[in-house]
Amino acid sequence: MSRLASAEPAADRRRSPQPPVRGPSGRGPLGRLAGWADRRTHALLVLPGVALLLAVVAYPIGFNLWNSFTNRNLSFPVTDWVGLANYRWVLEDPAFYSAIGKTLVWTFASVAGQLLLGFAGAVALQNVRRAQTPLRLGLIVPWAFPSIVLAFSWRFMLDPIVGVLNDALLAVGVIDEPLAWFGNESTAMPAIVVMNIWFGFPFMMVALLAGLQTIPAEHYESARVDGASFWQELRHIVLPALRALIGALVVLRTIWVFNNFDFVYLATAGGPAGATETLAVYAFRVGWTNFEIGRMAAVSVAMLAVLVVIVAVYLRVLRPDRDEEA
């Protein structure tokens, strides 16, 4: 009996519920704060990046938008609210529409040339079996050039007096006298477009080559068994597989080329006689030559609107799911 009597209280103690373990919230304000931070760690990790993005993107855009509604001018200390007057001035300026046309030519010609040359280079490198890495490194050299080095190198090569291009064309009889490629209204825009294509095609080539290497070899083997030619493989295998990548590259390069200022300004400064004055150079002239910051801000907002329309059209045309919806 004594053993049973002593065992029953021990069994009761084992069956009795234990007090719950109190978490961090039960340790006062500091514990509750630690529990709140633990539940929201993902948000706290993202917060510094969001704050930095707001500081370097949202604030400048907001400040520029505010300036576009003022008559801010570096020559006068007083700034007044003028409403839509700057936008009205921009829309009534013929030079603005001329700059839009030249910007579209500059952007579309450059991106198309970079895409075609980059795609050709990627397909060629894909079929190289030896020394592919040295070739890839050699072809990507133009992308590594700083803007100022690139622009002044091309200005030297196309110089009408000491330029190597004129000497080569004169030697083979293509031209009868040296040409001022950047100083002639009919050749200035094609010259800077060719310069930009030479600079930008390595980026396209490397990205497209990476995309080509993700296509399984079995697809090509099956096509060849069925008697497909190179162009049929290109049309039915390569292009569908790279459609999303091509769309992303075209959108990115369009944004970068559309907003590009340094290439055009360093090569021609928008000349001769405004033949290469893109929207970026036009905005620079309004703001930093005429010191009309308010009007320059309105031009930049108009640039953003034009770019949004172009990108929206690109995304509509190049989206990868278009065929599936059809």
TrEMBL record:
<dbReference type="InterPro" id="IPR035906">
    <property type="entry name" value="MetI-like_sf"/>
</dbReference>
<keyword id="KW-0813">Transport</keyword>
<protein>
    <submittedName>
        <fullName>Sugar ABC transporter permease</fullName>
    </submittedName>
</protein>
<dbReference type="Pfam" id="PF00528">
    <property type="entry name" value="BPD_transp_1"/>
</dbReference>
<keyword id="KW-0472">Membrane</keyword>
<feature type="transmembrane region" description="Helical">
    <location>
        <begin position="104"/>
        <end position="125"/>
    </location>
</feature>
<feature type="transmembrane region" description="Helical">
    <location>
        <begin position="137"/>
        <end position="157"/>
    </location>
</feature>
<feature type="transmembrane region" description="Helical">
    <location>
        <begin position="237"/>
        <end position="258"/>
    </location>
</feature>
<feature type="region of interest" description="Disordered">
    <location>
        <begin position="1"/>
        <end position="29"/>
    </location>
</feature>
<keyword id="KW-0812">Transmembrane</keyword>
<feature type="transmembrane region" description="Helical">
    <location>
        <begin position="188"/>
        <end position="212"/>
    </location>
</feature>
<dbReference type="GO" id="GO:0005886">
    <property type="term" value="C:plasma membrane"/>
</dbReference>
<dbReference type="InterPro" id="IPR000515">
    <property type="entry name" value="MetI-like"/>
</dbReference>
<feature type="transmembrane region" description="Helical">
    <location>
        <begin position="43"/>
        <end position="66"/>
    </location>
</feature>
<comment type="similarity">
    <text>Belongs to the binding-protein-dependent transport system permease family.</text>
</comment>
<feature type="domain" description="ABC transmembrane type-1">
    <location>
        <begin position="100"/>
        <end position="314"/>
    </location>
</feature>
<keyword id="KW-1133">Transmembrane helix</keyword>
<keyword id="KW-1003">Cell membrane</keyword>
<dbReference type="GO" id="GO:0055085">
    <property type="term" value="P:transmembrane transport"/>
</dbReference>
<feature type="transmembrane region" description="Helical">
    <location>
        <begin position="296"/>
        <end position="317"/>
    </location>
</feature>
